[in-house]
Prior knowledge:
Chain A is α/β, with parallel strands linked by helices.
Amino acid sequence: MLLSVENLKVFFHSDGAVSRAVDGVSYEIRKGETVCLVGESGCGKTVSVLAILGLIPQPPGEIPGGKIFFKGKNLLDLDEEELQKIRGKEISMIFQEPMTSLNPVFTIGDQIEEAITTHDTVEGAEAHRRTIELLADVGIASPEERMKDYPHNLSGGQRQRVMIAMALACKPDLVIADEPTTALDVTIQDQILHLFRELKEKRHMALLYITHNLGVVAEIADRIHVMYAGIFAEVGTVDQIFRNPCHPYTMGLLASLPSRARKGEGLYSIPGAVPDPAFKPQGCPFNPRCPYVQESCRRDFPEMCDFGDHHAARCPVIHKQRKAR
Amino acid sequence: MMGMDEKRGSAFPEGGVLETPKKTLFQENWSLFRKNRLAMAGLVIFVAFFIIALTGLFLTYGRNPYFNPALVRLQEKLRPPLSKPNLETLKPEEVPRLGIYLFGTDDLGRDVFSRMLQGSWVSLTVGFVAVSIAVVIGIFLGGIAGYYGHWRVLGLFSVDVLITGLIDIMLCFPSFFLILTVVALLPASIYNIMIVIGLTSWMGAARFVRAEFLSLRELDFVTAAKALGVSDWRIIFRHMVPNAMAPVLVSATIGIATAILTEAGLSFLGFGVPPPDATWGNILSNGKNFLFDAPWLTFIPGFAVLIVVLAFNLFGEGLRDVLNPKLKERH
């Protein structure tokens, strides 16, 4: 087991209110595996991975509970100095906005070289050589010239490739990608996804991929965690989630995908909106929007129900229905 | 990567097609700056002043300088500008190098041109050293306030409150009188003046850096650098400071003008550089006693200060227009 997150909670305090951004999530990532976190904006996806790297600003953030084991060490127990040695070296992260994730005043070569020299004591020439290699690895043509470019000389896709090169600079075991293709147009998205798949095979790294795009998930994931309002609604493989969704939220997400079969009809959308993380409804957080809602949903927080073969969903109602069948 | 190219076809060579015209940030800003005539005039005077001050240092420095600013010729006192020396009463080594008194002579018959040359170096160094001190302090304090703002000291105040409080307190002092007091207590020396001016004028830079840092620290590249394991100090001084330099650069340019003015003011009041070394301020101060007999003694250093200060201000404002992305669209 490379990474195992146990009952992680991340709260934010603001104006007396407590936002329960992440409210007890548990998951595991094995070596070389791709795990996807899927969910709407504001459901706590990004916060839950920032916590892994110790990047939650405290205050206003707080991690009141949970453990994050990486190679046997609890990352939440480490001090800043020990975390710095892990960041970028063993776990690295790619951010959503390639436009703002690169420092505008340095050449991309400088920035990749810094990523290398931060953790490895190598000579300038060696760092230079590795930078060129990395840029070639992520598919940037004529890397030797490109590395003298500033971020504003590059297109969005190229910048995201540079970000990926920086994340890979120290050969990490786990790469966290926070919606790396969201800001890119569809053709570039496809190229970047292929790049991820290829790099993953080549380097045997694990990938924790965050997205709200189910199409992306289907292409890349081994396991999927569907997140809603700070908790996991459903957990399973791509097949399980897409062919046999067991949580009303997952069903809603899949139904709202555009499809050729329903050409000309309006798109389905889940009624209502994501609850304010400071004022979540009692019981199941999805109950105000759920078509299967029952009295118990408004009262009791739902348990994770097993649907067999490591497929689980937090919905006792559907669980009962399926069992009755 | 090769595998991917084969599979996906090399019809989309990333980077090959999307060639953007290469124009560095500097070239871009320069072409904008050139359109601003006043700022260009400021820059030209700035460069000229720099060259004059440097040559002035070499030509007036040492025991036997090319232009001797301290040479007293009592029989030639208060000669107007462009007047010819009386060769009969002067020893050969006392004859001015240019053959005429370009800017006239003062009450001791010293060549005002030589003294202005010497003074220009003083003004230049005071301006640059004082502002360098101010900028270094400002970046340091502003950076800490902006980056570590929410940290608490002794559980009472945040770092941000402490530093902004210090800035506000420093701004409350009428700084010229503060400088005057400190200089009066310290031994008269040009270095003390530089340091004191520097120590009392860092607040602007600190405020600018703090403000820039407040917005910069929320940007992804700072989080990205943190996620790469880069240390806080390196993030502050290598990643964020270069991004926060634009307003600091502008305020520094204008700050140089202020420092030159302050030094001239101090010298005028007699707290500046001790004689016999000349500065524009003490030439002016000396000349006010002969305002009606020898007006050039006040007008020449006065104009020099005016022009240099104006040039720095124009240059600084031009710089601000160029570096401000919101104003850029207007050009």
